[in-house]
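TL;DR need structure tokens for one chain.
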Amino acid sequence: MLSFPNIDPVLVKLGPLQVRWYGLMYVLGF
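>> reply
TL;DR here they are.
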């Protein structure tokens, strides 16, 4: 599993912009 929960607060902090980067990083991490 990935450490995505660690970036979760950052995702909510930045907003929809981070959502896109979060999804890209998730695919790369996979």
